[in-house]
Amino acid sequence: MEIPRQLTMADYVAILKRRWLLISLLTILGGVLGVVVAKVLPKRYTSQTLVLVQQPTVDPKLVEPVMSDEMSQRLSGMQQQILSRSRLEPLIQKFGLYKEDVGTVPMGDLVDRLRKAISVTPIQAMAETRAQNLPGFTITVTMNDPNLAERLCTTITSMFTQENLQLRQDQAEGTTEFLGKQLEDAKAKLDEQDGKLATFKRRYLGSLPDQEQTNLNLLTGLNSQLEAATEALARAQQDKSFAESMLSQQLATVQPATASGLSPDSMQLQLVALQSQLTSLQAKYTADHPDVIKAKADIANLKCKIAEADNLQKSTATEKPVHSAAEPAQIQQLRAQVHQFDQVIKERATQQDAVQKQIAIYQSRVQSSPGVEQEYKQITRDYQTALDFYTDLLKKRDLSAMATDLEKQQQGGQFRILDPANVPDKPSFPKVPFFALGGLVGGMALGLGLGLVFEMQDTSLRSERDVELALRLPVLAMLPVVAATSGTPAKRQVSVLRPGQSKISA
Fold first, then answer.
1. Is the dihedral angle over the CA atoms 22, 23, 28, 33 positive or is it negative?
2. How far apart are CA 195 and CA 279, in angstroms?
3. Per DSSP, what are the bridge partners of residue 53?
4. How far is 439 from 452, CA to CA, in rounded Å?
5. CA nearest neighbour of 2 among 504, 495, 466, 493
């Protein structure tokens, strides 16, 4: 049974020596075929442009840009928009692309073909800079015509720059418009809160929390005025009582005494004195105080006596004619003093009532201050919140307006073309050296493969090892090479007995 041979490095070298012609021919043929294929395939030209992302000319700390998204995300969004069918189909019609396929191939397939011919590659920042922003990107367009590739690359680059400019302006204007509407709503709410605050202040004028100390000071002053008015009223009542007592003494010397021993005028003077005393007591004590109750009882008894004396005097007056003699000057002077004291008492009492009313007003204001303060805090808190919100929106609207003006003047982060699109002077595909090298490698691999196949199918025995492997028997003797008689080298032949044979020849 024949077993497969195990090839060594010497076997491989021997195979290469025997099959070098086949391998060489296939290698050369593969290289030539690669060059021919590179010459035959349609040429494709690539035009490329480099676009840098220009940083804003104004420091972002001074004017904060409206767009806060990363450039890579924005570039991806713009790429999807620009490479959409609605944007690429007009380019196919404008530049007359794929004329041989227009009408036979669906427009969607032509758009996909053009989309594959356009490549947008972001430029990665250097690792040493640790920059997070995208420094720029490249745009490449591959077409059959170099001039067409250059024009199409220029157009695509212009579309990117215009799209970026329009996108920044639209977003800035949209942000400013949105903030403007929000500012109007905030102003309306602020005016509403301002109206509520003004109404509250008019309603509780004098009772506001910031006026509480003023009310307390005024209340202290009014209490002092009330004490002064009470003291003045008491003095006036005492002076009047003294004048009335003097008048009653003078009248007693002139007029006869009544049956009770007291004249009506003297009792009237006592009544006035008691009323003055009651007023003074009521200013100091409540109505339940014993002195106040006693004074009221004395006044009631005295009024009854005066009524009895008046009735008695009227009855005697009907019996005796009234003498119309003129009163002495001293009595008239005393009557005038009593009348003057009555006026003073009346004024002091009026002043006392007015001060007491004012005291009641300020006392009610002081007492209502806690409730008013709570409501005032709520209204002022709502007003302050509305004011802060309005101020914040106003600041943001102004910053957005500045950013919008910055974008309109193209002072923001714009695209700057560093390397314009070029007209390629040689095709980017196919590249003859690569195809030639590929042909050489392919031909060599084919030659090696065929040589190995031929060697596997060859059953010739070329060494002792081949004999031993074929017969699975050791070699007993080797016959030397015998030169031919004609002078030409004889070919060595070895015949080996196989099972069923009877001799070995060489």
1. positive
2. 48
3. 415
4. 20
5. 466
Q: Which two tokens stand for residue 373?
A: 């303060």
Q: Number of C-alpha atoms within 13 angstroms, CB side, residue 322?
A: 7
- Give the separation between CA 421 and CA 157, rounded to whole angstroms: 8
Burial 205-241 (b: 16+ CB within 10 A, else e): eebbeebbeebeebbeebeebbeebbebbbebbebbb
34, 445 Cβ separation under 8 angstroms: no
User: pLDDT digit string (tens) for 183-208?
Assistant: 899 889 889 888 888 888 788 777 77
**Token pair 């002091």 in the structure block, residue:** 348
**Chain center to CA of 215:** 46
**Host H or E run for residue 93:** helix 85-95
- Residues with Cβ within 8 Å of residue 494, at least 6 apart in sequence: 461, 467, 479, 506
Give residue 416's region: left, alpha or beta (phi > 0; psi -120 to 50): beta
Q: Please say whether the beta carbons of 148 and 70 come within 8 A.
A: no
DSSP state of 210: G
- Cα 248 → chain centroid: 93
Q: Is the pTM of this model over 0.70?
A: no
Query: Taking a C-beta distance cutoff of 8 angstroms, is the pair 56, 413 a contact?
Result: yes
3-class state of residue 2 by DSSP: coil
Most trustworthy range by pLDDT among 151-165, 316-330, 410-424: 151-165
Collapsed DSSP state (helix, strand, coil) of residue 140:
strand
Chain centroid to CA 385: 17
Task: Print burial letters for 457-470: b (CB count within 10 Å at least 16), e (below 16).
Answer: eeeeeeeeebbeeb
Q: Terminal CA-to-CA distance of the chain, rounded, Å? A: 23
Residue position matching structure tokens 């910053």: 399
Residue 324, both tokens: 């119309």
- DSSP assignment of 440-493 equals HHHHHHHHHHHHHHHHHH-----SHHHHHHHHSS-----PPP---TTSSPPPP-
Q: Whole-angstrom Cα distance, residue 215 to residue 449?
A: 115
Q: Which two three-digit tokens encode residue 126?
A: 């250097």
Enter the DSSP assignment of 423. -
SS3 category, 211: helix
The answer to whether residues 66 and 171 touch, using CB atoms and an 8 Å cutoff, is yes
With beta carbons less than 8 A apart as the criterion, state whether 430 and 38 touch: yes
Residue 39's contacts (CB-CB under 8 Å, 6 or more residues apart) are 432
| Cα angle for residues 136, 138, 140 (degrees, 5° grid) | 170
pLDDT in tens, 262-289: 556 566 767 777 777 777 777 777 777 7
